[in-house]
Write a structure and sequence with these properties.
Helix content is 7%, strand content 42%. The chain has 553 residues and is mainly beta.
């Protein structure tokens, strides 16, 4: 947040980037208290010494040749903005508006101004094209009180190559509207291949959840790597830049965004779009998923070890304080017999015998989704002495192996998941009991294990054109070593990729190979469907409110 001070210095202190290897790199660090001056100068006295802005100042940054995810770029931009705020008193009627200053969000602008009393702000973006609805949100001030006199926000929802009207409505702590202002800015063309509008079909009337659909893609097309943010009307409202690879998910910790921007890099980004820390994974490259371990302030990440001849079978830890990276689990050590049974397919250079595509944390244990073996596997004591606890699958997958006794008993008559993605842990009320839900692709195939008998998977024993995928939710009972299906519904078929998310009373389901996603009600009825028109498949879709980052309730 921006605090009252005699000399405005912003949020952090610029420091040198000490290391760009396994230890990570701090772009901006420091305690905000260190920036405060000892004098008791008031905000109004500071304003007297500044030149007061007479009109809106709109800045579209010029191309400077600097890479976005570098210390040089981020500190250069912050210095430019700080210098303007030090010398000029911007107001609600005459603010500073800076289009995508840090380069991290291609359809956003930052706005800066002061008010005489602590206030909060609501904004609306509108364009002349009436087929594009207005975009309205309450802005996150960055102050615990929800009110501030020093206003700095990142505004999403801008439409490129159009005149965008931004309306601000300002409210004091009594809830009284104390001001309003409106500005029109021209938003430049965005150099990407993202669709400005998706094809949207309303299937059933119902209430959609608040938030933005976070859409990521599967192929490494440089024009389609970014994270696209769509509203409920299928209008693109934000586009977070990524260097290469893709982003598997966004994690929200202490009002910062964390997401991968390359195979071996994770960025920490503040609510104004500034990259404040960059983590380098060294010899490891990430894939599919990561989870936050709050107790240890670390990420547990699915990874490849580039020095090995196998892929997608490592788990590493990343300390968010120090940037230290540590190998936690080599799954070849946990399931050596399964690894030894696998064979390398033709035209493949490395063996993908497990293809772990999701991870969930239960205290010091992890639950993993093995796509290649259509199995969900729990590993105990990931930090100290990792060992296999259980497997959820059809018994046939593990028949004749030393792990057969680890397969939990299936309660009820249902077909086990096959080729599943995106498992999610839901705590239970009784110790040893909880739920897991997932996108059940219902795809019975393993490229490295031709010996698996899939005959027991009756849902997949139909022609592909008749096949369905499913939302599945299991109840796990570790005390009795059982699992049962407690909820399911059909969704469009997708052999690969895809995701499932429970959000409030609704479900967000992505059938990635069909390049579509939808929002479903609590009974599994499709409310609205969104269709991607590009050639690339949709990898995963999650919906986030971004409250505490850009917006507030």
């Amino acid at each position: 947040m921006i605090r009252k001070m005699k000399k405005f210095t912003g949020i952090g202190i610029v420091t040198a980037c000490l290391m760009m290897t396994v230890t990570g790199c701090n772009f901006l660090t420091g305690n905000a208290k260190d920036d405060l001056q000892t004098e008791t100068t008031t905000a109004s006295e500071v304003e007297v010494k500044k030149e007061k802005a007479s009109s809106m100042e709109y800045v579209i940054p010029k191309e400077d040749g600097l890479e976005v995810f570098t210390e040089e770029k981020q500190t250069k931009v912050k210095k430019e903005i700080d210098e303007k705020l030090e010398n000029i008193a911007y107001t609600m009627e005459a603010p500073l508006i800076y289009y995508n200053p840090y380069g991290t969000n291609l359809r956003s602008a930052n706005i800066y101004f002061t008010t005489n009393e602590p206030c909060k702000v609501t904004y609306t973006v509108s364009v002349q094209d009436k087929t594009i609805p207005d975009f309205t949100r309450n802005l996150e001030t960055g102050d615990e009180s929800g009110f501030t006199t020093e206003h700095a926000y990142q505004l999403l929802g801008l439409i490129p190559e159009m005149e965008n009207t931004i309306e601000l409505n300002v409210y004091n702590e009594k809830g009284e509207q104390v001001g309003t202002s409106s500005f029109t800015i021209d938003v430049p063309k965005v150099e990407s291949d993202a669709e400005q509008r998706m094809s949207v079909t309303t299937v059933k009337e119902g209430t959609l959840t608040d938030g933005l659909f976070c859409v990521v893609y599967g192929r490494r097309d440089s024009k389609l790597l970014n994270i696209d943010l769509y509203d409920n009307d299928g209008i693109l409202r934000g586009e977070l830049l990524v260097e290469d690879y893709r982003t598997d998910k966004i994690l929200f910790i202490d009002n910062y965004l964390y997401y991968s921007i390359a195979e071996n890099k994770i960025a920490k980004v503040d609510r104004l779009g500034q990259v404040v820390k960059l983590y380098d994974l060294g010899q490891y490259t990430m894939h599919h998923d990561m989870v936050y371990d709050e107790a240890n302030n670390s990420f547990i990440i699915l990874a490849n070890d580039e020095e090995q001849e196998t892929v997608e079978d490592m788990i590493i830890g990343l300390d968010l304080e120090t940037g230290e990276v540590k190998a936690l689990v080599d799954l070849k050590d946990i399931l050596p017999e399964a690894y030894e049974k696998a064979t390398l397919p033709d035209k493949k250079s490395k063996l993908d015998w497990a293809h772990v595509n999701a991870i969930q944390l239960i205290e010091d244990d992890v639950v993993l989704s093995f796509r290649e073996l259509s199995s969900i596997v729990k590993i105990q004591d990931v930090y100290t002495k990792p060992q296999l606890q259980y497997i959820l699958s059809d018994q046939s997958v593990w028949e004749g192996t030393s792990y057969a006794d680890n397969v939990y008993d299936k309660i009820g008559d249902f077909t086990s998941q096959a080729g599943q993605h995106c498992i999610t842990y839901v705590p239970g009320e009784t110790e040893g009991e909880y739920e897991l839900y997932m996108f059940n692709n219902n795809f019975t195939y393993s490229g490295t294990r031709k010996d698996i008998d899939w005959s027991g998977y009756t849902l997949s024993q139909v022609p592909v054109e008749q096949r369905k995928s499913y939302y599945y939710k299991y109840k796990i009972n570790e005390n009795e070593k059982t699992f049962k299906l407690v909820d399911s519904f059909e969704v469009p078929y997708s052999a690969y990729v895809s995701s499932a998310q429970k959000l409030d009373d609704n479900f967000i389901i992505c059938s990635g190979s069909q390049k579509l996603f939808g929002e479903y009600d609590n009974e599994g009825n499709l409310l609205r469907e969104y269709q991607q028109e590009k050639e690339q498949y949709v990898y995963r879709v999650f919906k986030y409110t971004f409250d505490g980052i850009w917006f507030t309730e």
